[in-house]
Amino acid sequence: MSFQPKFPEGFLWGGAISANQAEGAFNEGGKGLSTADVVEYVKLEDRKHMKFPFPTSSEIEEVLQNQSQKVFPKRFGIDFYHRYKEDIALLKELGFKAFRISIAWSRIFPKGDEIEPNEEGLAFYDRVFDEMHKHGIEPVVTLSHYEMPLHLSMEYQGWQNRKLVDFFARYAETVIRRYKGKVKYWITFNEINSLLMAPYISLGILRDQVTEENLLQTKFQGAHHQFLASAKAVEACHRISPEAKIGCMVIGIINYPNSSHPEDVFTALQDQRNTFFFTDVQARGEYPAYTERFLAEHGIQLNKEPGDDAFLKEHIVDFISFSYYMSTVSARPESSGEEAVGNLISGLKNPYLEASDWGWQIDPVGLRTLLNLFYERYQKPLFIVENGLGAFDKVEEDGSIHDPYRISYLKEHIQQMKEAVGDGVDLIGYTSWGPIDLVSFSTSEMSKRYGFIYVDQDDYGNGTLTRSKKDSFYWYQKVIATNGEKL
């Protein structure tokens, strides 16, 4: 008799967006400027050698003085701020059990260092959560998703400053207390391991605030402060809302060795630690043993205060969540080969895999492997909170949008999730990325679409913002209705 794995009853099917890519209304409701609000749109022809934004404070000052000549897509998003009722109704029609969103920190504390929160911002999320509950959708809420009050970057030098730990703790306690009973699932920092690649986006650190020689030291010091802030959010959640669960979140990457050469294999192990280091600290509550050698060899001395390690140990997360878009190939330094590109991550091309329009290596089986690795390592519930295919979509003359490539991508990944559940992995949910088209995080464009729902808007914010259903809408609707049995 063949074994037929099944998703558990009550599995949290849904989708995920972030405030800075969807909400818009950047200057309404008392919101302050965030680090995402000053990231410009870059034309395709100017993007060939583009790195992730790492501006200086003077460059940001210049942006603020010449705003009218530039396009800032994350300021307008897809106008979820005004259209959330329409959007949530569409997600209800899809059959969503859960919807992952983020709270814009600068809507609650516009500058980040205030004592009292902004009531208009708090009230907005009350309305959003009430609307979700009206439709039977469980909120999954990220506290920090690639944005923070810009003032904290400009005045405090971002997360390299320990003062941000307490600013974040005040923000986390404020929203956890406010939405007690409305939010059962919290996530602290989105893709926290991205700080190794994108110090401005993840840590709010500006290029003139750190030297090249001191950059790695600054990243790991910022990581320590975010670990403490995450632990403070965990403590607040367990104290204020003990019925809720709170987790960490990382970019989920599986690293393959380029060959069976022992040095390639060890390089892949070391690269895998760029993920596991961050889950080790938050899920086990301590710095892993291999960190000591890494820090020493790179001349990194973490500034810790008495009690830091004990606090991390005492306040560990309830579950581990992660994004999964690709795998990567690791090789010893002297190896050569064609590079693959990806969101924050790069490595050698894998000859056995196809790639997306943006060069990301598509690897469904890698998701099953990673789920098993995470679960064997931690024995904690897992939650896939981002996964999807960014692609160019075409609207036909009759208004239909055929996206078989998206259906194929998601079908293959969901099948491997099911296999992992059959392997014994405790998987509690799956929220695909961008169920409604939104502004891309990595390129700030609308052309790169992930959604089941099409949004009529171009890269410059032109369009009617009309929402329409793609073929994948009806496919995913059936997947949810059958709890993953009909793919």
Automatic annotation (TrEMBL):
It comes from Desmospora activa DSM 45169. Pfam families: Glyco_hydro_1. It comes from the Bacteria. InterPro entries: GH, GH_1_N_CS, Glyco_hydro_1, Glyco_hydro_1_AS. This is 6-phospho-beta-glucosidase. The keyword Hydrolase applies. GO terms for molecular function: beta-glucosidase activity. GO terms for biological process: carbohydrate catabolic process. Belongs to the glycosyl hydrolase 1 family. One of its GO terms (cellular component) is cytosol. Keywords: Glycosidase, Hydrolase. PROSITE patterns: GLYCOSYL_HYDROL_F1_1 (PS00572), GLYCOSYL_HYDROL_F1_2 (PS00653). The active site is at E386.
